[in-house]
Amino acid sequence: MSTIAFIGLGHMGGPMAANLVKAGHRVAGFDLAPAALTAASAAGVELAASAAGAAATADVVITMLPAGRHVLAAYGTADEPGLLAAARPGTLFIDSSTIAVDEARAAAAAAVAAGHRALDAPVSGGVVGAENGTLAFMVGGEDTDFAEALPLLEGMGRRIVHCGGTGLGQAAKVCNNMILGISQIAVSEAFVIGERLGLSHQVLFDVASNASGQCWALTTNCPVPGPVPTSPANNDYRPGFAGVLMAKDLSLAEQAIRLTGVNAQLGLQSSRIFAEFADGPGADQDFSGIINSIRAASEERGRG
Ligand code: NAD
Fold it and tell me: Which of 27, 173, 178, 181 is catalytic?
């Protein structure tokens, strides 16, 4: 049993902390939102008066915050000390937020400079995975720290992959989600082209799902209703994985593209397409709803 400080008890962090309690750990939690604190307390998380207060007696500090700037601010700076200054020397910091690779590396470097150890451990699997303890973790950091974290992560997830050194958990996540974003656009464009050529959705699905066009965006998250009854398209495009979250992940992909200098034109284009979608219907729709934006833009073009 470990004592864990859990900072950020929102949609993901709340149920993750609850699963650590179920696994027998002592969890001291903190969040800025009173509603998140109430829900976590009901699940057996001890409430700390501050993030630093939670970290002061912890063996492990887990952060599950919206973005990189929140993680870096919570870790603290020389002027505004935070979790790193409050924790006991050698504490293991695990950041499970989805943040940019260079932010993850900066956060880990700050932790190490303060005498601690750090892993980046972003997740996939969404709120359902967080609630059911079936998240996938992609972990970057030292072997020994990964080995220490593994039993804890197993309390919250099912598939836990050590991707390599610091930042490589975030690198794996951003590369995977860039493939996903691009392929969801490709599948959606193909269905709209097929419609205009007179091809039925079912026939295109039957051909492509058994041919080289086969991919998750087609066979699980099919953007038209019918061929895959469980896809969000059959449920008014309710998420699922919301368009705003895909837009956020693709903005991180864009940062990785700039960091590496790769000529990743589809990555950049998909980021632009999903940013526009997230400003409109994608704010509360599954990202496969992008097909409706493609269809609408095609109609406008036809009229133009
Ligand atoms: P959320 O907004 O529901 O939760 C974030 C929580 O952090 C909020 O409750 C907020 O009050 C709290 N917070 C912000 N700043 C804080 C601070 N300084 N101290 C303490 N608490 C603070 O977001 P979420 O959906 O739980 O996502 C968290 C992270 O997980 C994000 O990086 C997101 O990209 C990633 N993620 C989300 C999903 C998903 O389906 N929601 C899936 C995979 C990954």
Answer: 173
